[in-house]
Specification:
This protein is an all-beta fold. The chain has one domain (4-42, 90-109, 125-316). The chain contains two helices and 19 strands. It has helices at residues 4-7, 56-60; strands spanning 37-53, 77-95, 99-114, 117-125, 129-138, 149-159, 168-169, 172-173, 186-196, 200-210, 218-219, 223-232, 234-236, 239-252, 256-257, 260-261, 267-280, 283-297, 304-316.
Length: 319
């Protein structure tokens, strides 16, 4: 391939999708030219803030969803702040013209404060992910950027339960959401479509996650994420700028224990999205900001506020 720069576009086109703390940000999106092996780093940060009301009945039914012994929490609204930050190393490797394998290893920092008092602040390796993709149909790859091009890719993957899920802090075992790992084998399904012309393009990505059950009978809610954007290609000498606008939707079913769903968990959030990508030779960098427009969540879920994604990728030329 004569233009490894454009192959790197795959690694930075869409922001990471699905839950940030489990390292599932693997929908990659636009790739005008195929078959460039690439590797890079992606940083994601999610900020959540809001009040949760804790009458005695709710406390006795599981306020430990967000940490702390229920009997120590006062009745009334509690102001929760949570920040999930992920630094993820990832690489994509092609086998022939249609099949590829993406692997990622996340390093996480999960933080929680209640009424301004820190309850958790942990660092740890998360669960690695392997995701195989297959190009179902696509335009012919090549250096010609004057024609309309498109591609549709499907993928199947697995999340490996290698991160710790028994971390204790301040004398208490942290809630499942705050642990570096989930302790479960989880399945992933991805679908991606891209179309681009000489100056404009668009992309759509979807990822679903089917969660396993821990040894103590807990299952995080199965989830799905959707992202869509339109982008403009602006050449500036040897640099290419790609500003974009779009939207991002994520949804999860309630968590369950021994098969019984907890209807105070789960829900959906709709984000607006703006971003920019910058390309120079084989190197690409990107930044995306997402702002929560609508939170439709269970009563024990903290509202999403902002999400930030930044990445850097290097593409390796292949013959």
């Amino acid at each position: 391939m004569k233009h490894p720069l454009l192959g790197a576009l795959l690694m930075l086109a869409l922001p990471g999708l699905a839950c940030d703390q489990c390292g599932c940000g693997l929908l990659l999106g636009v790739q005008p030219h195929d078959h460039a092996n690439n590797f890079g780093l992606q940083w994601r940060m999610r900020y959540l803030h809001g009040d949760i009301t804790t009458p005695s009945m709710v406390k006795s039914m599981g306020m430990a969803k967000h940490g702390g012994h229920a009997e120590t929490l006062p009745a009334g609204p509690l102001a929760y702040t949570e920040v999930y930050a992920v630094l993820e190393a990832r690489g994509q490797f092609w086998f022939g013209q249609r099949a590829s394998l993406t692997a990622s290893i996340p390093l996480l920092n999960n933080f929680q404060a209640v009424n301004g008092v820190r309850h958790a602040d942990i660092y740890g390796l998360g669960d690695p992910i392997l995701l195989g993709r297959y190009v179902l149909f696509a335009s012919t790859s090549g250096p010609d950027t004057t024609r309309l091009r498109h591609r549709f890719t499907a993928g199947l993957g697995i999340k490996l339960p290698l991160g710790r899920h028994d971390v204790e802090q301040y004398g208490e075992r942290l809630d499942h959401d705050l642990q570096p790992g989930t302790g479960t084998w989880d399945g992933l399904l991805s679908l991606e479509y891209m179309v681009r012309g000489p100056r404009w393009g668009g992309s759509f990505g979807a990822m679903g996650r089917y969660n396993g059950e821990t040894t103590d009978g807990f299952r995080m809610g199965h989830s799905a994420s959707l992202a869509a954007e339109v982008f403009r290609i602006i050449p500036v000498n040897s640099i290419k700028l790609l500003p974009s606008v779009g939207g991002y939707l994520e949804s999860a079913l309630p968590d369950a224990t021994d098969g019984m769903p907890d209807n105070a968990t789960g829900g959906s959030t709709l984000f607006s999205q703006v971003g920019v990508r910058i390309w120079w030779k084989a190197l690409g960098v990107s930044f995306t900001w997402q702002h929560a427009l609508v939170n439709d969540l269970g009563s024990l879920m903290i509202p999403n506020r902002e999400r930030f994604v930044a990445g850097i990728t290097y593409s390796l030329e292949r013959d």
